[in-house]
């Protein structure tokens, strides 16, 4: 039986994106899904500016809204361990930005005890750069890459003006990701301060 302190090794891959965007992470099984969302935003490279949802089969977790009773379950109240045990799945889906529809597959590759000197979440491997926000989903991203690489493309000028500078789809800022995840891990593991007795 797994415990909330055990560590899950996750492989996250974006659907329909070339070159491949993949991250391999370790997180605690007791991590709530809203926190897993924050981990993914940092690890993938999103800006956390759109709605999102995790799915296991036909069950969804995200930002709950009392005015939308058929919406997702509250991600703050679900842990990775709870979802895995309750649904029996080893693969989740993560949708970010309901307009652009960035789909991610989250595969639980391994579960083990934590290593004493490691802090979690942590990045193990990364491949491929995160697409720019609001580019139009995987199909818009494919056109963006084609247009910026070809000065004769009909949208070259428009898209290079919209996204100035060089965009290398293979470049991953692993140092930045590791630093941000480490800050997050330290913040989440802080002990609450005790009130002084009067």
Task: Describe the protein.
There is one protein chain. By secondary structure, this protein is an alpha+beta fold. The chain has a single domain (7-130, 172-188), classed as MM3350-like (Structural Genomics Hypothetical 15.5 Kd Protein In mrcA-pckA Intergenic Region, Chain A, Roll), CATH 3.10.290.30. The chain contains five helices and eight strands. An eight-stranded mixed sheet has the order 5-4-3-6-7-1-2-8, covered by helices on one side. A hairpin with a 7-residue loop joins strand 1 (7-14) and strand 2 (22-28). Helix 1 runs antiparallel to helix 5 and helix 3 packs across helix 4 (156-162). It is globular and about 65 Å long. The relative contact order is 0.19. The model has no long low-confidence stretch (mean pLDDT 92).
- What would you call the structural class? alpha+beta
Parts with pLDDT < 50 across at least 5 consecutive residues: none
For the biggest sheet, the summary is: 8 strands, mixed
Share in β-strands: 15-25%
Order of SSEs? EEHEEEHEEEHHH
State the CATH topology.
Structural Genomics Hypothetical 15.5 Kd Protein In mrcA-pckA Intergenic Region, Chain A
Shape: globular
What is the first-to-last residue Cα distance? Answer: 45 Å
Q: Count of helical segments?
A: 5
Helical residue percent band: 25-40%
Q: Using DSSP, what is the number of strands?
A: 8
**Overall pLDDT:** 92
User: How many domains would you count in the coordinates?
Assistant: 1
**CATH arch. level architecture:** Roll
Radius of gyration: 19 Å
CATH class: Alpha Beta
Strand order of the largest sheet: 5-4-3-6-7-1-2-8
| The CATH homology group name | MM3350-like
